[in-house]
Amino acid sequence: MIFSVMCALLILPVRQAIADDRLQVRYPAVQHAYYSKRDVYYVTLLTMALERSGEPYELLEVKLPEYSEKRSVLLIESDQYDVHWLNTTPEREQQLQAVRVPLDKGAIGWRAFFIRPEMQPVFDKVNSADDLKSLVFVQGHDWADVPVLLKNQFAVESSSNWEGLFRMIALNRAQVFPRSILEISAEQREGVAQGLVIEKNLILRYPAAYYFFVAKDNPRLAHALERGLKKSFADGSFDELFFKNFGEPIAALNLPGRRIISIDYPELKIEDEGLWFSKEWFEKVKEKYAEK
Q1: Domain that holds residue 79
Q2: What are the tens digits of pLDDT across the range 57-81?
Q3: What pTM did the predictor assign?
């Protein structure tokens, strides 16, 4: 009996040490009807990366009514949670540690347009970035896309109200609301784009990516996520998850039939082109996973 108690006392600290060694990974769970559905992809990818990281971990959600990406940076810095998927900017990469694996393969920078139906003939004549510069674009006031568009001399109106951006187009206060090929079809189904249509012929492409961001003093989590993400690329699970979530809406946009207008943003560096979206990559992945 005494021997058993002594064994238990010896074992207990070891188990506690193992428990204490787990990575605590807190992430924001926004309570917003549309964004909570969109975030399922990123939470799944976060879980996938942690499972492949080789680290013991505990994944916890921190419920928030809403957030802006700018505010989320401050919440990570103040240790309110540990990781968030954010659209990268040069400033953001100075404030936080970016895990430089594009969670969306950079497809967030492939943009189709919400427009008013009667504007389609105007866009039928667009062949270059210069042709778009006579039109007014709308964006969220703190979105990472704003400096990209302004640096390329586009006219931009902004708002802090997401639903209000759609109304700005509907009321002809602007003509173009560019949305990524990952989200535009879902937003059309959600009804927030009531009265608007997806423009038929164009894609505006620029460097952009969502990365996992963690605090500068959390290198263990950053390294774990990078290992896990790269393993998920290597074993094909990343591509399969991406296609499962976005394959159908991207295919419906008919990328091969669209004119792609590219603009540059040198501040965002693409280091490994194999991790990034291309039409050729999408066609290969579609052949592999479309039947599953």
Answers
A1: 21-106+209-235
A2: 999 999 988 778 889 999 999 999 9
A3: 0.87
